[in-house]
Write a structure and sequence with these properties.
By secondary structure, the chain is an alpha+beta fold. The protein has 17 helices and 23 strands.
């Protein structure tokens, strides 16, 4: 087998590094000197290579070198020859083998290395973590042209020890095929930034968004040797968007090296032209939006109090048109139906944007999609924007609605318009779906009116990625609202062209591209087993504190599985199935004269201790866990349902059976 010249030189370099590392040259010199003294002194004969190798082998140096060399076997061959796994569920505890990336030599790559951080002053006083100690960590998430990457978690520190490299393909899915090598001039027209999001995970697994940064990578096109080092200052989010949180040292490199490097004047001119063009488009849209708002207020003075939202601040405090937060998003094979998409969005955590200080005011922060997905939680606006984008991806006509719930609390939800005129409201925080039937206030009292089941009170505007409508009906109450969007006396539209000029992704837009969804990295069976074992320990300890013994019934625990599967199916599809079989199995497992009690509960996190504390607050659950009686047998079953982005729905059911003693 012959190697190409570049591979041969690479192999020689690796062997040389290994020999230097083991100081083989020094040891050979020692052996050589010793051999010459011992064997050449009497008759001054010539020392052959064979004699030297024999001497090296006798002293074990060759064996040492061979032990140090690690030969990588073919992963697929290993898989083929390994024995089949038994049917029970095992977890491989071996560290994963790092697969080498195949670099296509006909394509351009940007190699982005993160070489540590500094000046993360919030962690200045943080002590050095002890080996094996659980500590808060930083994780860096990247998105570039439909590719997503995540760094290894590193302990939070003033100078976090980031050492990761990411290979970004420059013309992924576009700009020519493999037969054409993209040149520096073509790459200069690719204005997609590298979106970097820094997440902090505390010791309880709670995530916080630390920083969101758009890296302009094209400076590398004007760098000598195609390599440049950048110190990126990260700013905080929300109310701290003007405060520095730390600095990342980043090294950018082009693969293969550019034949022709651009001059810095060319790249700087391109950047300033793009900024001017974007600023001009945004200025024109602002002028148009002000004019539209003046016209809207002239229709009716009370419109001033309606929730008509044209701009919203992102996590970096940048005002952006609300339509730019929506884009049709296809989930590939990760989600199969619109209702499954609604379920996925509802199991992402809900958290209001943090406010420093009191006052009860709501801090506005509409997150970019990458920041929302990486943090795995966000406000109602983030959920509604994602759900609307997914429903548009499924081919529905979907809009985000801005209005209020009970007591005038501002809220956003999603609406879909059917081709037959059916209006459905989707609550992004719960996955619930409501059909809207308007009440006609002019009908006589005798006419029976539909009772609205949805929690929404008023609606000010609706929008998606192409359209924006302000509600100009006499009342903004949802129950009397008619959603005839073609009637301009009911809904005042914005110009589609104006929206398109600032909200469609393109060469002159400040709108960040949408990242693709990632498949779950969780193993549902393993996660379910772990939580179940932890809950058994917690229940046993709790009963022991009450002076009660605990006997577990494994068979009864297993019988609870169908109920948990049915609950999740009902949440996803609104269809209830399998209840008869579950009840029949339980009746067979519970003898005559015994009582069965069960308590199901649902969570969107995997912290067993936190879930158990919540369960104990329910008197029904406490009744099951603290059950007293004759022949008490306890059961618990946990079922984790995984969704994209490592989101999960966790169903827990506690049950007990005991002999009734009157």
């Amino acid at each position: 087998m012959s190697l190409p010249p570049e591979k041969a030189s690479e192999l020689k370099q690796i062997i040389h590094q290994q020999l230097v590392k083991m100081d083989v040259h020094g040891r050979i010199r020692e052996v050589l000197a010793e051999t010459i003294r011992e064997e050449l002194a009497p008759e001054h004969q010539q020392l052959s290579t064979e004699d030297l190798i024999k001497a090296l082998r006798q002293r074990g140096i060759i064996d040492d070198v061979m032990k140090e060399l690690k030969f990588i076997t073919d992963v697929n061959e290993k898989e083929r020859t390994s024995a089949p796994k038994p049917s029970t569920h095992f977890v491989d505890r071996e560290p994963p083998v790092l697969k080498k990336t195949n670099i296509d030599p006909t394509r351009r790559y940007l190699y982005l290395q993160v070489l540590g951080g500094k000046a993360f002053l919030e962690h200045l006083q943080e002590p050095e973590p002890l080996p094996g100690q659980v500590c808060s960590t930083f994780t860096l998430c990247l998105h570039f042209r439909n590719q997503r990457f995540r760094s290894k978690p590193v302990p939070c520190a003033c100078e976090p020890d980031f050492h990761d490299g990411f290979l970004l393909e420059v013309h992924k899915d576009s700009l020519g095929d493999g037969s054409k090598m993209v040149d520096a001039t073509t790459m200069l027209s690719i204005c997609d930034p590298v979106h970097m999001v820094l997440i902090k995970t505390d010791t309880f697994g709670e995530t916080t968004l630390v920083a969101s940064y758009f890296l302009e990578w094209r400076s590398v096109l004007a760098a000598e040797n195609g390599v440049t080092n950048v110190a990126v200052e990260l700013l905080g989010v929300g109310t701290e968007s003007k405060v520095s949180v730390g600095v990342l040292n980043i090294r950018l490199e082009m693969y293969p090296q550019l034949n022709k490097v651009l001059s810095p004047e060319v790249t700087n001119t391109q950047f300033s032209l793009e900024r001017q063009k974007t600023a001009e488009k945004e200025r024109l849209f602002l002028v148009y939006a002000k004019q539209w708002w003046r016209e809207y207020l002239q229709i009716r003075p009370t419109h001033n109090a309606r929730l008509v939202k044209i701009f919203a601040q992102d996590e970096n405090g940048v005002n952006r048109p609300v339509c730019s937060y929506i884009r049709p998003l296809r989930a590939g094979r990760l989600l199969d139906t619109p209702r499954q998409a609604a379920r996925f969005v509802s199991v992402l955590g809900y958290e209001r944007a943090p406010v420093i200080g009191g006052g009860g005011g709501k801090q506005e922060q509409w997150c970019t999609l990458l920041a929302f997905l990486c943090r795995n939680k966000g406000d109602c606006e983030d959920h509604a924007n994602l759900l609307c984008s997914l429903l548009l991806g499924f081919g529905l006509e979907a809009f985000v609605c801005v209005g209020t719930k009970a007591k005038g609390v501002p809220h956003t939800w999603v609406m879909t318009c059917g081709t037959d005129g059916t209006i459905a409201f989707w609550e992004s925080l719960t996955g619930h779906r409501y059909i809207h039937r308007p009440i006609n206030p002019d009908d006589p009292p005798v006419v029976e009116q539909p009772k609205p089941l949805y929690p929404y009170r008023t609606i000010g505007c609706i929008f998606n990625h192409q359209k924006f409508f302000g509600n100009c009906q006499p009342s903004d109450a949802v129950e009397v609202c008619v959603f005839d969007l073609h009637d301009e006396s009911k809904w005042k539209p914005m110009s589609g062209e104006a929206i398109k000029s600032v909200c469609s992704p393109g060469t002159t837009s400040s709108v960040p591209p949408f990242p693709p969804l990632c498949a779950s990295t969780l193993d549902a069976a393993v996660a379910s087993n772990e939580i179940e074992l932890q809950l058994r320990v917690l229940v046993s300890e709790h009963r022991k504190d009450l002076g009660l013994s605990t006997v577990w019934d494994d068979h009864l625990s297993y019988l609870l599985s169908p109920a948990l599967a049915a609950y999740e199916l009902e949440r996803t599809t609104s269809i209830s199935a399998g209840n008869e079989e579950f009840q029949d199995a339980v009746r067979r497992a519970v003898p005559d004269g015994h009582t069965f009690k069960g308590f199901p509960i649902h969570f969107v996190y995997r912290n067993a201790r936190r879930a158990f504390a919540t369960c104990l607050r329910s008197p029904f659950c406490e009744e099951v866990i603290c059950c007293r009686g004759d022949q008490v047998r306890l059961a618990v079953r946990v079922r984790v349902f995984t969704y994209p982005e490592s989101a999960c729905a966790v169903w827990i059911m506690f049950a007990c059976k005991y002999r009734s003693v009157l």
